[in-house]
Amino acid sequence: MKSVLITGCSSGIGLCLAKGLKQGGYQVFATARKVEDVELLRQDGLEVFQLDLSSSVSIKKAVKLIFQQTNNLYGLIHNGGYGQVGALEDISRQALDEQFQTNVFGWHELTNLILPKMKADNKGRIIYLSSVLGFVAMPFRGPYNASKFAIEGLVNTLRLELMHTDIQLSLIQPGPIESKFRINAYQAFKKHVDMEKSDYKMNYQGMIKRLRSDGLADYTLGPEAVLKCCLHALESKQAKIHYRVTFPAKLFALLIRILPSRVMDKFLFKAGDGGKR
Question: Other CB atoms closer than 10 Å to residue 96's CB: what's the count?
């Protein structure tokens, strides 16, 4: 039985991955940030550990406990994180730091703690849940954009540095997926952005309406679409470097290759509500 560590399993994609991989015969080590979520996952029959990606102490403790359960961790799936939204003018250094602590630095530290055992076994798969916003930028998503661009840079570099091994790295780049992402993004927005004092108040009104909406964005897929990609990345002889999930992700990947940058900028500006000031 191959073992897999998954971060951010309290809901959405992470929960789907944990349950789906367990059903597929994997030994799953699920993690979540909050104690109450850990208990709920344990009640679902999952083997769960508390892991807060913004805390080195928490990451190291979780890894130590997991390695007491297995000497052969085959897969690491980076999923935990959140999206800080808001115009970059309204984003403080603290807000940007918090975004990177969870979405980038925690992932990097966790990878480095897992890699020695994978290298000793000369096998393993590391999967990173990036985003369509890891290769295109949109207004009012700057902190999240930057965190995903950073992850893609780290992964592309690490892939080169591990070419002498049989460890394979994959980036999954979803567009809209059913999850609590919008709810969490709205909470982060309220925490760090003073909407009333912003030059972008009008833009925020439309953004908030979408974040608080119970409806699904166009072309939204269920988290099972990501599970399918993860299974391929874990089980195929040659995992793909990029898995683009949903029509928007595939479309944007094509457009950035064929459109001039200024034309693409205008398209993304309108798509991201940049013109509603």
Answer: 17
The span from the CA of 135 to the CA of 149, in Å, is 6
Within its chain, how far is the Cα of 42 from the centroid?
22
Degrees (nearest 5) of the Cα angle 266, 83, 48?
Answer: 150
Helices (H) and strands (E) in the chain, counts: 11, 7
- What pLDDT digit, counting tens, does each position of 64-110 carry? 999 999 988 999 999 999 999 999 999 999 999 999 999 999 999 99
* Coil vs helix vs strand at 76: strand
Q: What is the pTM of this model?
A: 0.95
Beta-carbon contacts of 99 under 8 Å, excluding residues fewer than 6 positions away, are 82, 84, 143, 144, 146, 147
Tokens describing residue 25: 């015969």
How confident is the model over 227-243, as a mean pLDDT? Answer: 98
Q: Which positions are annotated as active-site residues?
A: 144
In this structure, the number of other CB atoms found within 10 A of the CB of residue 193 comes to: 21
